[in-house]
Amino acid sequence: MLKVRFRSILALMLALVATFTISCSSVTAATKTAPKYTPAQIEQIQQYVPALEEFRDRMSELQTMIQQRRWVDVGTFIHGPLGELRRSMNRVAANLSPQDKEAAREAAKDIYSDLVRIDQAAKEANYQKAVSNFRSVLQEFDGFLNLIPKA
What we know:
The protein has 151 residues and is mainly alpha-helical. The protein has 2 domains: 1-32; 39-147, Oxygen-evolving enhancer protein 3 (PsbQ), four-helix up-down bundle (Four Helix Bundle (Hemerythrin (Met), subunit A), Up-down Bundle). It contains 7 helices and no strands. The chain is elongated, with a radius of gyration of 27 Å. The model has no long low-confidence stretch (mean pLDDT 86).
């Protein structure tokens, strides 16, 4: 009788050890995730990067115009050279992973709203409002660029 109990307990212990070992080994396999983007997707997204980087580089021109209080030039620059910015950002956002897509669209919307506020500040010749919104544009733009996968 004691021998049967010992075998039952031993079998139960072996089953528990086997279950534990199998469950631990499958956790490491589950943590390996597929890459977010295929090489083709990265290539497609990277097509827009030079234009976006050019827009980002040209922000220094906008900053100079604001600092010099050249309000007509500020409005012209926002509607002219930066006019395609929102469209380019939306094209990139459409190609991002679902996790990043919403954040990218929100950043694009915020940047556009801030540019509208800068334009309004230029019409009002409100230096403080223009500078505040310009800083916000830079932060949001940099955040957007960080969402783009690297080649």
